[in-house]
Amino acid sequence: MSDVEIRDVVIAGGGYVGLSTAVAVAHAAPHLKLTLVDAAPADALSKDERASAIAAAAGRMLDQMGIWNGLLDHAQPINEMIVTDSRTNDPVRPVFLTFGTGGKDVEEGEPFAHMIPNKALVGALRERAETLGIEMLHGETVAEFETEDPATLVTLGSGRTLRTRLLVAADGVRSGLRQQAGIRTVNWQYGQMGIVTTVTHERPHNGRAEEHFLPGGPFATLPLKPDADKGNRSSLVWTEPDGNAKRLMAADDFTFELELEKRFGHKLGEISLAGPRKAFPLGLTLARDFIRPRFALVGDAAHGIHPIAGQGLNLGFKDAAALAQVIVETDRLGLDIGSVTALERYERWRRFDTVQMGVVTDVLNRLFSNDIGPLRMLRTVGLGIVDRLPQLKSAFIDQAAGRSDSSPALLNGEAI
Question: What count of other Cβ atoms lies within 10 Å of the Cβ of residue 121?
Fold first, then answer.
């Protein structure tokens, strides 16, 4: 066993959630030895042309980790969001719900979210991880693991063996480590696909996001920071039934832009594609358990939800903040960071919120992705009520911003 390398935490998965978990722990407890195992090549995520909505609470977390200021040059604040419910060919799309009108902020000077290019975000996280001395093994995988007492033996694809007090699975919605750990899931498919792309448009968006509930599924336009060469830009998250989505993905750019224009409208002038199109199947996946002895799930490995509320990545940041706090505070007490007792605190903290968001997104998608008359009337009345009740509307804004009294310290802008 002389060739076995000792670690405190091994994280499998070098996406945003795996990286943020590693950085949060290392920032607060630099003496802990961390290794991040990432199956993707070092430059894989740097080629991602998409952007993500980062809620205000996640922004506070990134700020605490020393990352946020470097991202502001790339960030576009979302100062306002409007919600409509209509058919694709309706000449007028009445606005039923607005958030942020008149400069409504989470806190003074703080929008409820920012749009940030994915490659800028992952670049900042990786740079911070390197500064903190986190070992990152790009192109490497966790082949298998065996839980022992008082540690877990992790075998990498290259044959290296690590002995760690805690293994964290951040390896995505189809997590192989979750399966190896024997954790079952609740899951189903919606028969829909999410199409993601970037467009340019003539007129400025003024920081306004829009979500149009159409019979095929929600169509969201999210503002991006103007580009010096391409001008005004927005990111699209476009939901369609599987058959329509495959047809659109197979169409040439001209046909795709015609279909896009029907949904986007002419409010921002002429539009055109400014990035590649990508599509992915949509479903709900919820892990029945988030932990095993010396093992924890974070991010999509624990939960995959519909993008209708734009909260998937932000749920992952909440996981990272909660698990990092549990690890660091347990270590400060001189206790075992991989024990079931410690990890149960993380599971209690995150499971209810995750299940709640999964149920909410599931109900919203089923309620809005149709053209049934009585449901349309119910939606119209419901959206109007929310728009006219300040307290209820504030609750929706708090949810979009990721703010909660029970949030981990990092999400409240506090150090662990």
Answer: 24
pLDDT reported for residue 212: 87
The full set of domain ranges for the chain reads 5-74+116-187+283-368
CB neighbours of residue 2 within 10 Å: 3
Q: Which of 244, 196, 242, 245 is nearest to 222 (CA)?
A: 196
Measured distance CA(331)–CA(336) in Å, rounded: 7
CA atoms of 300 and 170, how far apart (whole Å): 7
Q: Are the beta carbons of 33 and 327 closer than 8 angstroms?
A: no
Tokens of 161: 């063996």
Q: What is the pLDDT of residues 190-241, one digit of tens each?
A: 999 999 999 999 999 999 999 888 888 889 999 999 998 889 999 999 999 9
Q: What per-residue confidence (pLDDT) applies to 377?
A: 60
Give the CA count within 13 Å in the CB-facing half-sphere of 18.
29
Prediction pTM value: 0.90
Alpha helices (H) along 132-252: 176-180, 242-250
Among 79-83, 142-146, 218-222, 291-295, the minimum mean pLDDT is found in 79-83
CA 51/CA 173 separation, integer angstroms: 19
CB atoms within 10 A of CB 194: 22
| d(C-alpha 357, C-alpha 389), whole Å | 22
Q: How far is 81 from 97, CA to CA, in rounded Å?
A: 8
pLDDT in tens, 73-132: 999 999 888 887 766 555 455 556 676 644 444 455 678 899 999 999 999 999 999 999
335: tokens are 């206790």
Residue pair 318/350 in contact by the 8 Å Cβ criterion: yes
* Residue found under tokens 């970037």: 198
CATH topology for 5-74+116-187+283-368 is: FAD/NAD(P)-binding domain (3.50.50)
How far, in Å, CA of 161 to CA of 163, rounded?
7
C-alpha–C-alpha distance, residues 311 and 305, integer Å: 8
CB 234 within 8 A of CB 205: yes
Q: Where are the beta strands (DSSP E) in 14-112?
A: 34-38, 51-55, 76-78, 80-85, 95-99
